[in-house]
Specification:
The protein has 188 residues and is mainly alpha-helical. The chain contains six helices and no strands.
Length: 188
């Protein structure tokens, strides 16, 4: 290894004998972080899609079990409201998974105000090709790093929201399934 390695989480000043990263290295690192953010967004979408398929299957099974000869059709007493509560939790879980995969584009008018941010496709669509070419050609390392930094912050916010909705979906769905399972098992 050539010299000390520094983790991203290091706090405090660096020793004087270690050179500060150059703008070029910082920009390269920002692009690697951008790729990681894209990967995390894709993983949240995949998880939400798997949850939606699972939740849809469970919903189908519950509706089938509520049919004329299904075992849930024979529930009575407190089991009925428990079943309804479980079904409501499952439907809320499905809704949360849908929110997780729903595209977050922002307000249409906000993209016109962010023309200086040349990374997000919502902003790029307002440019003319030659104007964008000139703008990109005029960017220096600091301008590129600034645009990347703004994009990374927005991506992180979106990814955090996506992952949180996936968590909510999972918790609600499992709670709904558990409530229905307890109601059905105690009625046997």
């Amino acid at each position: 290894m050539s010299g000390p390695q520094w983790s991203v989480a290091r706090r405090g000043p660096r020793p004087a004998n270690v050179a500060e990263p150059t703008q070029k290295r910082a920009t390269e690192f920002a692009w690697r972080v951008h790729a990681a953010q894209e990967s995390w967004a894709n993983k949240a979408d995949v998880k939400a899609s798997i949850l939606l398929a699972f939740e849809g299957g469970v919903l189908y099974a519950i509706i089938s079990a509520q049919g004329k000869d299904g075992f849930l059709a024979r529930l009575g007493g407190w089991h009925r409201p428990a079943e309804a509560a479980g079904m409501a939790l499952l439907l809320l879980g499905i809704s949360a998974a849908i929110v997780a995969v729903f595209p977050r584009l922002g307000r249409a008018d906000s993209h016109r105000d962010n023309r200086h941010q040349p990374i997000y496709f919502g902003n790029l669509r307002h440019w003319k090709a030659m104007e964008l070419k000139d703008h990109l050609a005029g960017l220096n390392q600091d301008g590129e790093l600034d645009a990347l930094s703004q994009q990374l912050v927005e991506m992180a916010r979106h990814n955090w929201t996506k992952h949180r909705w996936v968590q909510i979906s999972l918790v609600l769905s499992l709670a709904g399934i558990l409530v229905i399972a307890v109601a059905a098992a105690s009625a046997l």
